[in-house]
Amino acid sequence: MTRTSVPRPAHRPHIEVCDPDPYHRGLARGEQLRDGVLAAAEVYDRLFALGGIGPARVREDALRALDAVGDFRPAAHAEILGIARGAGVEEWRVAALNARTEILAGGTAVPPGECTTLVRVPGDGASPHPFGVQTWDWHVELSGQWHMLRSRGGRHAVAGLTENGILGKMGVNSAGLALHFNILGHVRDGVGGVPVHVLAAVVLEEAGSVAEAVEIVRSAPLASSGSFALFDDTDAVLLDLSPAGVFEVPARDGTLVRTNHFLTPVPAAGEKTWLYQPDSGERHDFVRARLARRPPPATVDDLAECLVTGPGEPPVTCLPDPDKPLGGRWASLATLTLEPATRTARILDGTPADIGARDWRVLTAG
Q1: How many CA atoms lie within 13 A of 33 on its CB side?
Q2: In angstroms, rounded to a whole number, what is the distance separating the alpha carbons of residues 355 and 357?
Q3: Nearest to 134 by CA among 244, 227, 13
Q4: Residue 273 has pLDDT above 90, yes or no
Q5: How far apart are CA 326 and CA 247, in angstroms?
Q6: Residues 201 and 194 sit within 8 Å (Cβ to Cβ)
Q7: Is residue 242 a contact partner of residue 108, using CB atoms and an 8 Å limit?
């Protein structure tokens, strides 16, 4: 099987917004990404259709999700509307982007293939402060439809990356809270609760600590699944999020390791194992074994090296297969490191194997 490099834009968008009003923050984001929001929506239209989800159902699901956001956080609802206005697209289309995980969960023909996250927890002799790294693996057709972001005006400033039109994904805030994000799959996943991408954005904007973040997550009505690795300068937690509840995953050997399967028994009983396995388990076990053979990672760069894989190894570094059709061409679209102590996100427009060959973009929340 031949793997190819990922096509990347000549200039990756970097979006800066600063306004105390969430609608106007969204408006500024939409204006800066006017072409990009529509381009992302058009790719997702193809993925929804591939999964047997027609335009009428997408619109209905998107509006249901938007209502749920409005009930949970009116400010996030207003920001979504602002993005739509700024980008010149219909509100439901931006709502569909923010609920893309939940809408795709109701489809039948778009298999997942997802990310790997590692976080060193505080208190270890080699790493007094926590730090994390992850790959963001997604459809190669969306390689041009994401951007780097620094947003100010809410309770906390946020730096990180997200897809065009989507409020949030991975990042760090000015209070020193970091969030890595992976998708999981449960048989009860669907539309009706707060979309997990919106929840990630709310957590980063509002939470000043891991404890505050967990409180926000537990207060959210969830109808879909995911994982947040949350860490600040003194604390770290890995969460299984699902319609069955929110559950904490204990750390092992000073490191939180997350791929794309549940690590606690209650949600695992309803897992979509036919979608994520054996790939997720193989990646998880491979990284765990690699960590066990090495000295404890003392820096985020040491940790990032653990994500580099090649032929014959599980695809932690994921390159697309050009012979596969739409929905099957997976790639590591970005590599991200987060360091709460310095409020820093480093974003590589490339795979872990590109470390050293490409420059990191360094963003500081504040």
Answers
A1: 36
A2: 6
A3: 227
A4: no
A5: 34
A6: no
A7: no
Q: Which domains does the chain have, with CATH numbers?
A: 111-364 (3.60.60.10)
Lowest mean per-residue pLDDT among 31-45, 63-77, 87-101, 125-139: 125-139
Distance CA 207, CA 221 (A): 17
| Strands 14-18 vs 146-152: parallel, antiparallel or unpaired | parallel
pLDDT of residue 3: 62
Structural contact between residues 330 and 338, judged by C-beta atoms closer than 8 angstroms = no
d(CA 22, CA 77): 9
- DSSP character at residue 244: T
Q: pTM to 2 decimals?
A: 0.96
In whole angstroms, give the CA distance from residue 170 to residue 114. Answer: 14
Higher pLDDT, 7 or 293: 293
In 70-203, at which residue ranges do the beta strands (DSSP E only) sit? 117-120, 131-139, 146-152, 158-163, 170-173, 178-182
Two tokens at 56?
């009428």
Q: How far apart are CA 334 and CA 338, in angstroms?
A: 13
- Helix axis angle, 34-50 to 22-32, nearest 10°: 90
Nearest one of 234, 236, 228 to 201, comparing CA atoms: 228
User: Which tokens belong to 275?
Assistant: 């979608």
CB 77 within 8 A of CB 95: no
| 135, β-bridge pairs | 335
Look up residue 163 and give its two tokens: 């897809």
Backbone dihedral region for residue 327 (phi beyond 0: left; psi -120 to 50: alpha; all else: beta): left
Q: For the CA atoms of the chain, what is the radius of gyration?
A: 19
pLDDT tens by residue, 123-173: 655 557 899 999 999 999 999 999 999 999 999 999 999 999 999 999 999
